[in-house]
């Protein structure tokens, strides 16, 4: 399950990077509650966050978070303050002059978008690209309304990254539709330019039409069906014969180009004589052989 969850987090960070511009090192805002839970479960929180985000991080805490840690008992505040001072960077939220620190939700909202309270709809923008790690459920619910805010929290000693909120998904879909329409528009412009280059500008020069509005007619799709044989495979093979030097020669070429020393019928192929087989008889006939005469003297 750990490998499956890690793969999901990687894909989620790729979407945040592609649509909202997140990049390494990721700026992570920690609140006091998640630091306390990590200390309670003896978790290496910074290392786990780097593993979840699959990249280097830049841990940050605000002045309000620092004041919340100082109000804790000494058994908790001492190790947590030592951890934050050595590893975390202080984010100036502008609330250090207040007599009491603000809540986690108000402080993080001002860090993400200082003008978010002045807007009627309450929807801001995460222009600094913060990743928020908080245990406050109300703060997470409010931050889901802001597009492009990754949220982390600890659940039973396991670091969990929330899926992309509905507002972030809406921004993602609008961006994809815009790019798709821009691609279609660019394709039409290239097509019109190609028509003008191929001769569509004649109508514009004559005044009979606008060259920029010429549209290429749709090509007729070829009907699918059985294809014929390869024309090279149905050609009749050429007859060749061997000459006296062992090389093959085309008889048609030999007939077309006769030599000068040949007779009038040299270019015509002479019929071959039929070969007769001679049979040897075992016994020689008397009439067929000449027997020498022998004279006998008395």
From TrEMBL:
Query: What InterPro entries does the entry give?
Result: Fcf1/UTP23, PIN-like_dom_sf, UTP23_sensor
Gene Ontology cellular component list = small-subunit processome
Keyword annotations: Nucleus, Ribosome biogenesis, rRNA processing
Q: Where is this region: Disordered?
A: 166-298
**Biased segments, Basic residues type:** 272-282
Kindly state a single biological-process term from the GO annotations of this entry.
rRNA processing
- The answer, when asked if Nucleus is one of the entry's keywords, is yes
Q: Which domain of life is it from?
A: Eukaryota
Domain UTP23 sensor motif region, first and last residues per copy: 220-239
For this protein, the record's Gene3D superfamilies field holds: 5'-nuclease
The protein's location, in the record's own words, is:
Nucleus, Nucleolus
Which family does the UniProt entry place this protein in? Belongs to the UTP23/FCF1 family. UTP23 subfamily.
The record describes the protein's role as: Involved in rRNA-processing and ribosome biogenesis.
Per its record, how is this protein called by name?
A: UTP23 sensor motif region domain-containing protein
Q: Which organism is it from?
A: Viridothelium virens
């Amino acid at each position: 399950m750990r490998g499956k969850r890690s793969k999901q987090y990687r894909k989620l960070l790729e979407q945040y990077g592609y649509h909202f511009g997140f990049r390494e090192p990721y700026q992570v805002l920690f609140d006091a509650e998640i630091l306390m839970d990590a200390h309670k479960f003896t978790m290496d929180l910074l290392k786990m966050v780097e593993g979840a985000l699959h990249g280097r991080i830049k841990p940050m805490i605000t002045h309000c978070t620092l004041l919340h840690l100082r109000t804790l008992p000494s058994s908790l505040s001492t190790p947590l303050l030592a951890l934050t001072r050595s590893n975390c960077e202080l984010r100036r939220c502008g609330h250090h002059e207040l007599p009491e620190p603000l809540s986690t939700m108000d402080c993080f909202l001002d860090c993400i978008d200082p003008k978010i309270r002045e807007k009627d709809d309450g929807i801001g923008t995460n222009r600094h690209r913060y990743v928020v790690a908080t245990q406050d459920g109300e703060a997470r619910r409010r931050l889901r309304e802001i597009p492009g805010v990754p949220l982390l929290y600890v659940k039973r000693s396991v670091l969990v990254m929330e899926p992309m909120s509905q507002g972030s998904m809406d921004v993602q879909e609008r961006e994809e539709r815009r790019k798709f329409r821009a691609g279609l528009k660019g394709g039409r412009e290239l097509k019109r330019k190609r028509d003008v280059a191929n001769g569509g500008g004649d109508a514009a020069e004559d005044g009979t039409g606008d060259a920029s509005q010429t549209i290429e007619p749709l090509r007729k799709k070829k009907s699918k069906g059985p294809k014929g044989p390869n024309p090279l495979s149905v050609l009749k093979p050429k007859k060749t014969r061997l000459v006296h030097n062992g090389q093959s020669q085309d008889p048609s070429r030999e007939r077309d180009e006769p030599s000068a020393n040949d007779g009038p019928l040299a270019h015509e192929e002479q019929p071959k004589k039929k070969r007769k087989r001679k049979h040897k008889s075992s016994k020689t006939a008397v009439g067929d052989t000449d027997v020498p005469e022998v004279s006998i003297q008395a």
